[in-house]
Automatic annotation (TrEMBL):
It comes from Dendrobium catenatum. PANTHER family: MEMBRANE METALLOPROTEASE ARASP2, CHLOROPLASTIC-RELATED, REGULATOR OF SIGMA-E PROTEASE RSEP. Belongs to the peptidase M50A family. This is Peptidase M50 domain-containing protein. One of its GO terms (biological process) is proteolysis. It is a multi-pass membrane protein.
Length: 423
């Protein structure tokens, strides 16, 4: 199945594969926006703001440690997702044949006394839980009857629905536990509003860049993000004076920006915008307050991810360039780990939530795609879809995801600073 995951620090997101039809469950990741910020407003982007990936110099032991920490977080999230499928099937006494982390040739594997093969595989694009099926070439040698009631395909719809959705449930529960652990260890996030609108990023060669606006600047005279968006969209080719505050300068100054005219006739200046606020940590007074604080943060992050997903699909031509694969996710995660262990908690929570939300999309190779097929079966009065049709739908999605994942790995690796230096 395919997974997208929202990134807490970077305004990219990533694709990864996760699961096949009813015979396998898989999980990849995606990334999105800064957790402390709402989704950057895409209406002001002339095109996707491409940032250089954080450098990963191999000689620095602290960098190697942070890369290992980020990689461990991602691997752990895959394990959590697949363990959800595995645990649900085990509790329902459904036969399981394989539990794998990654895809492709196995690097290491062993079989349990119950005959389940556990493996670590070559391509870190997710993982899967496989179930015996009469259509598998190896099935005749398994000694299992095709009508065995413990085969997943022979189970009633509610059992199959539980097994398929259990990965998403596991990620949601784990995200909450991560936020709860962060709250206990570091305190709950409290956002203190500050004047103006923050500019997290500026696109090179855009109108804002030409006017001298820099990432990190604050527009003091903007009433709100959406108020500024409306002003810029309605002013193509017209000079707009903006009062800018910059950390390196003692006093605010005025910048005149002339928005470019977009293809739809509206103006845009090529920046990302966010409300301006300061984040502090508040220690919970007791366990009940920690539960409440964690719940508030869980809901806030989920809302941010859903909003970011909506903006991505509504403006896909502008955001497609920000899709990131596992290399970019680990690079950004390593940057977070070097900054603070607190940020690594947020990194894990956001990717877990992102993985859960994206997996529910009704697309082939996603848990949501499998759930959609089960709903079609329910609407047909329990009559299964033709096996060949089901296989074609799901396998085509898995192939696309694997190809996209490999392309992203190559692209993101070439974008790493130390790789560019070697080239």
């Amino acid at each position: 199945m395919l997974h997208l995951s929202f990134h807490p620090i970077s305004s990219r997101f990533s694709f990864l594969p996760s699961k096949s039809p009813l015979t396998a469950s898989a999980s990849p990741f995606p990334l999105f926006k800064p957790i402390s910020l709402p989704p950057p407003h895409p209406l002001l982007l002339c095109s996707p703001c491409r940032r250089r990936l954080p450098p990963l110099p191999a000689a620095d032991p602290s960098v190697l440690q942070s890369v290992a920490e980020a990689s461990a977080v991602l691997a752990g999230i895959i394990v959590v997702h697949e363990s959800g499928h595995f645990l649900a099937a085990s509790l329902l006494r459904i036969r399981i044949s394989k539990f794998a982390i990654g895809f492709g040739p196995p690097l290491a594997r062993f079989s349990s006394s119950s005959g389940i093969e556990f493996s670590l595989r070559s391509f870190p694009l997710g993982g899967y839980v496989a179930f015996p099926d009469a259509d598998d070439p190896e099935f005749p040698d398994s000694g299992i009857a095709p009508d065995d009631p413990d085969l997943l395909r022979n189970r009633p719809l509610p059992h199959r629905f539980l097994v398929v959705s259990a990965g998403v449930v596991a990620n949601l529960l784990f995200a909450y536990l991560v936020l709860f652990s962060q709250c206990i260890s570091f305190g709950a996030a409290a956002r203190q509003p500050l004047p103006g609108v923050l500019i997290p990023d500026v696109r090179p060669l855009s109108a804002a860049s030409a006017a001298g606006i820099l990432p990190g600047d604050v527009i003091l005279d903007a009433p709100s993000v959406y108020g500024l968006v409306d002003l810029i969209k309605s002013s193509p080719g017209k000079s707009i004076p903006l009062q800018i505050s910059r950390k390196t300068l003692p006093n605010p100054f005025i910048v005149n920006v002339v928005p470019d005219t977009d293809s739809d006739g509206t103006g845009r200046i090529g920046v990302q915008l966010s409300p301006n606020f300061r984040v502090t940590r508040v220690r919970p007074a007791n366990i009940f307050e920690a539960i409440r604080f964690s719940g508030v943060e869980f809901v806030a992050l989920s809302a941010t991810i859903l909003e970011g997903l909506k903006e991505t699909f509504l403006n896909f031509s502008q955001t497609a360039g920000k899709v990131a694969g596992p290399v970019a996710i680990i690079a950004t995660g390593a940057e977070v780990a070097r900054s603070s262990s607190d940020g690594l908690f947020q990194f894990a929570a956001v990717i877990n939530l992102n993985l859960a939300v994206i997996n529910l999309l009704p697309l082939p190779a996603l848990d949501g795609g499998t759930l959609a097929l089960l709903l079609v079966e329910a609407a047909r009065g329990g009559q299964k879809l033709p096996r060949e049709l089901e296989q074609r739908i799901m396998s085509s999605g898995v192939l696309v995801v694997l190809m996209l994942g490999l392309i992203l790995i190559v692209r993101d690796t070439l974008n790493l600073d130390f790789v560019k230096e070697m080239l």
